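To: structure desk
From: M.T.
Subject: fold request, one chain
Message: Could you run this one when you get a chance? Sequence is below, nothing fancy, just the single chain.
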Amino acid sequence: MRREEAKFTTKFVSEPGTKPKNNDYFGYVQLDNYAVWAIADGYDEEDGAAIASKLAVESAIEYFMLRPRFNPEVIKEMMEYANLKVKEKQEETERYSLMHTSLLIVISNYNSILYGNVGNTRLYHLRGGYVMYQSSDDSIAQLLVEEGALNTRDMKYHRQRNDLLQAIGDFGKIKPNVIKHPVQLQEKDVLCLTTMGFWENIDEREMEVELSRYDDKSKWLRSLERKIIATLRDEVENYTFAAVSIEGVAAPEPVEKDKKKFWIKVALISLVILLLILMLTFWNIKKRNDIIKKATTYEQMADEDLIKKDFNNSMEELKLSIGEYEKLKPKSRGIIGFFVNAKNRRADADKRIDGVRKKIEQTEKLKQAFQDISEGNEFFNGGRYDEASRKYQQAKYNLEQNTYKKDELNTEEILVTLNTRIDSSSKLKEAQSMELAGDSAYTAGNYNLAKESYKTASDIYLVNGRPDYVSSMERKISEINDKEKTAYSGAMLTENRGDILAPTDSNMSREAYYQARQMYQVLGDSAKTQEIDNKIQELNSRQIANLQTASNMVKEGLDQITANNPSEAIALLTKAKAIYQGLQDTNNASNVDNYIKQAQEFIKFESDTKTQLANQEEQSKLEIQAKENEIIAEKERLEKIAKDIENATNLEIQGDQMFSLKRYTESIQKYSEAKKIFENLKAAGNFNDQTNKIDYLGKKIVKSEGYLYEEQGDTESKNKKWKEAEKKYQMSKDNMELSDVSTEDKKRVEKKLKNATKKANKKWWEFWK
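Reply: Done. Structure tokens follow.
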């Protein structure tokens, strides 16, 4: 035990002085390891001063004994406990409600001391016979000393030495004057605990002198008491003087800190740190939430602008959103980054940014899609249906790939509309082509085809929402109707000219009929066309009959020559010649003229020399027989020529009929057979020169082949054989260039050729073409 190692001796004196009652109180306890000394000075002017001083000392010692410790905190706790007990007593008894007391507490671990005081009690520490230091008090005089306005030695004489700033029993909270660091004790040190009645009457110098005179502390105390009594003051306050002699000290011991206070401080510091961390965390969370809120607001604004189809603003706001999300990325790395979870926070920010960038990409596609739709509408309204269809196809592709705000933008409805527009563009393009075909047919005078084209175009325009074009078609059809009336008049006049020429000039009549027939075909009047065909057939039949009649007359004339009737022969041959001349068959007319000349010569010879005839009768018979044979052969030849011409004419007519029925293969066959017959006649030198007729039939063959190649090209196109279709259309174009085909038909074939060429040369990735 530390008490046994040390030797502390306590002696004290406590007297009322000149006062009737002693309101001072002193007490101490020396425990095994710790000791405590307490001295109190009750205020004499107040009731219960003695009670206050005693209660303060006893309460302080009681608190210390319950849990003895050596640290500044325990002195504060003892002071506060004593103050609490005095205030409780004040509240219990009204007469003691104003009682107060000063209090000095000294504690020791038998090696060092700690002390604290409230009021004007004092502690003196003497070492080597001298006062090493003294405690300060809570008087106004002490304040003057601390401010340098008063000397320490003059405090005991100052009138405000007893005016205190605080005391035990004050209503408010007290602030004890407690030293923070222990004072190391040495052997022969003396501790003096005093009240005001002592220190105001004893000078520190006197204490030192008297201590030097007496080794016995009891004698020292009595000598000091005598000096107090001998003071010149009229009144002597209660005085108490306790001397603690240090004759031996224990080994040093560290100041025991109040673990409870320590842990309270640790807890408070931890709480402050925790609060700071929480505040920082909440601040970061709030900052993060504010950033996310701001970024989300930008995204919402972008969505609103997107729905309004303000794509540029939408993308700008999404970029601002990315800028906000970039702020979420912490800059901390390494160990700090590990503790603040920087990696995951950066990953989260990157994920959010990637999401916004995808929105920007989708918005770009939507912007392009709606721009394509707008441009497509302009092309559509301007009648540029190919370009409109391409724009619609591109917009459709982008919208089908898009999933962003699909419902808000009514993407499905827009796709339905686009499909309708694409289909309409194709059909309107067809209508446009039909209109152009009608224009070409109209220019070429093919009014029936023009009307059919305009009517088809009008129906397509009406079905596909272009009623404004329908009125244009109706106007064009009305113009055609007016033109048809004029064309019909011209066709009828040409037909009448053919009728007039029919009895006298078969060839001119036939030519007029062909012109009228073509005009009726152009006008689409199949009845009149058939009627003209009948007239041509009748004319051909009449021509064939005339040829047959002429041939019969030639045969009969030759028979008359053979029968020695030259006059009748000449009459018959002259009629046959007239028929051939009417048919413009100069070759046969010339032959018949030769026969007439022979008959005339025969008559001349007969009249001149019957004798010669007689003499030459035998020879003449042989000649006549030869001539008869010649006439028979000529007759057979003429019959064959007539039959060949009839067959060739019939074949040509059949070819024309097949052509009108668009049976081009059969028409080519008929024309070729007719052409071959006329070529054989030409090669034999019969029936005049047939070059014009052969060339005319050649042109018909080329023309029919042109339309046949077009049909074959259409078939290859339907089968998606674009290379073969391209070849057929090229052959059709070449043939039509060589024949009298309408400009409309040529343009139609050129258009088909262009389309087939494009399809044939299309690359695999050009799926939209």
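Reply (cont.): The CA atoms of residues 106 and 115 lie 4 Å apart. Let me know if you need anything else for the meeting.
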